[in-house]
Amino acid sequence: MHRDRNNRNSTLLGIASIITAIIIWQAVADLIVKSRFYLPSFTDVLFSFISLIGGGTLLTDFGISLLHFVIGLGAALLLGVPIGIAMGWFREIDRIANPIVEILRPIPPLAWIPFAIIWFGLTHQSAGFVIFVGAFFPILINTYTGLKSVPRIFVEAARVLGCTTNLSLIRHVALPSAVPSIAAGIRIAMGVGWMCLVAAELFGAGGGRFGLGQKLWFYYNLHQTANVVVYMLLLGLIGLVIDMIFRYYVDSRLERWRAGEVRS
After folding, report:
1. Dihedral through CA 135, CA 139, CA 141, CA 142, nearest 10?
2. Rounded-to-integer distance, Cα 142 and Cα 136, Å
3. pLDDT grade for 44, boundaries at 50, 70 and 90
4. What are the angstrom distances between the C-alpha of 224 and each of 87, 208, 227?
5. How many Cα atoms are found within 13 Å in the side-chain-facing hemisphere of 188?
6. How does pLDDT run across 185-209, given as a tens digit for each residue?
7. I need a surface site. Which of 76, 100, 205, 217 has the fewest CB within 10 A?
8. Nearest C-alpha neighbor of 75 from the set 3, 158, 137
9. pLDDT at 264
10. CA torsion angle for 202, 204, 209, 212 (degrees, to 10)?
């Protein structure tokens, strides 16, 4: 009961803060700035959103950007988790791969855009590649750290109970223990990948015709800043929804055992 009341109060407080921010935004745009180019008001953005919905390209832009994001994040998961597990569990693989990872990791994902276009052209794969570079290292490093942090007593207890091979130890002990760290890495990777998506589409990767990032730059060149703000807000809202879905899945499925421990 007390928790429900706190949740309701938090929701009402969040709604009130958003309404207050909108009122301040509208007042500053109409009474102080007085220029749609420098700062479009909330109503300007709302009308632009309705116009873009009517034009029909907004859903296409969303679908294309989501395709780029899925390509990049999917590739980062397919490679980042297994390599992180191998580096975290096998010392020899760690010694071989770690220097290469440490050299490549500080390179900003945007620095890979020229090679993304050279290797893949202006295709969806080139945008996906830039997102992959941004998302790969957070997943890899957090998986690696999670595997390295498995308490030794867990491993020794599992060996006593019959887990004698590396595969069984990884499956039944190391991987479950590393799930919180891996999940945190994926969440960071999703945020970085979403930012890389905009940058990749701004530079023309992904076809250069559709995409949330591409349209943001397109409308900037037309000096239609209300449309630019529409795409900016959509990027923020979509990123928030993706993060909320991921957190719900992790809390309800992957880390349900942690909640049980706390309740007991």
Report:
1. 140
2. 10
3. very high
4. 49, 19, 6
5. 15
6. 999 999 898 888 888 888 776 666 7
7. 100
8. 137
9. 39
10. -30
CA quadruple 176, 178, 184, 187: dihedral sign: negative
Question: Confidence class of residue 1 from pLDDT cuts 50, 70 and 90?
Answer: low
Structure tokens at 64: 């294309």
How far apart are alpha carbons 193 and 127 in whole angstroms? 10
Four-point Cα dihedral 245, 246, 249, 254, nearest 10: -170
Which among 259, 231, 240 has a CA at the least distance from the CA of 45?
231
All residues at 6 or more sequence positions from 51 whose CB lies less than 8 Å from its CB, including other chains: none
Identity at 10, one-letter amino acid code: S
Q: Is the pLDDT of residue 261 over 70?
A: no
Cα torsion 52, 228, 135, 155 to 10°: value is -80
